[in-house]
Each structure stands twice: as structure tokens, then as C-alpha cells.
Amino acid sequence: MEKVLGYYQKITGVLSKAILGFAAAIIGLDVLSIFSEAVSRYVFGESQASMEEIPRLLVPFIVFPMMGVLLKLKKHITVEILPERLKGKARSLLLIIVYSIVVAVAVQFLIAGVIAVRYYFQMGFEIQGELIFPVWISYLAFPVGFGLLVLFAVELLLQELLTLINLVKEAA
What pTM does this model have? Predict the structure, then answer.
């Protein structure tokens, strides 16, 4: 099982770096878009509304895919009163419960996201502005992000299960 987890961690490691790169590129595009909009307004006295719309439409593609990456890197906002005070098997059991809840909730949101994307795709709704943009594309970040969260939370769950198994073996 440790060998399988090692391969899984390599895959999620590459995936997390790709997601971080993707998020950085989106943030760069957002900053460039807003900067060019401000320069255009200052130099030419007018600007395009799309320069403000693009960052707003791309923010979900930063936030939702990053949930799993932040969980994996232990950079997600947490309140760590119990994990800091507990040691050994008790700490592992607590983390197993936490990661199990994260997986269960993420699966529910993944399903809800797929349903929402399918609904908006079938309805053909569009975001009206200077850019005409299908609504379902902006909702696509939701199931993708929660699907990635499931992948990363499963990794942490398996890692903690192995830790617990090793602790039990050592105690025996």
C-alpha cells in the first residue's frame, strides 16, 4: 500500500504544481487585464468593459481548483486546537475523521456542481456584457475544484491510515 501511495503522491504532486501554475497564469492575466484597462482609460479616456469582466469571470477558476492544493500543502485555513494537542493514534484517528468528512462533503458538492453545469448547459444561459459568455463555463470550476479536492483529500486520508497502521504495529 505504501508503494501505491507513493505513486499517488507523485501524481498529485505534479497535479498540484500544474494547478498552482494555472492559478498563477490566471492571476497574471487578471492583473494585466485590469492594468491595461486603467492605462486605456487614462490614455484614451475610455476603456472596454471586457477588461473588467474577464477577471471577474476567471476568479472561480483560481478559487475552486486551489482548495485541494491548499489542503495538500497544509496551507488551508484551519483551527488546529486538537491536532496540536493530540499525539500518536489519537491524532491519526482525528485526522482520519476530518479527511473522511472532507471527502464526503466534497463528493456531494462535486455531484451538485455536475448537476448545475448540466442544467446551465441545457438551458443555454449566457452572461450578457461586452463579452457573451455561456454561464455553464463559469460554473465548470465548481465540479472541477471539488473533484480535485476529493483526489487530494483521499491522498491525505490514505497517508493518515498508513500512519495509524504503523503506530498500531509499533505498539504491538
Answer: 0.87
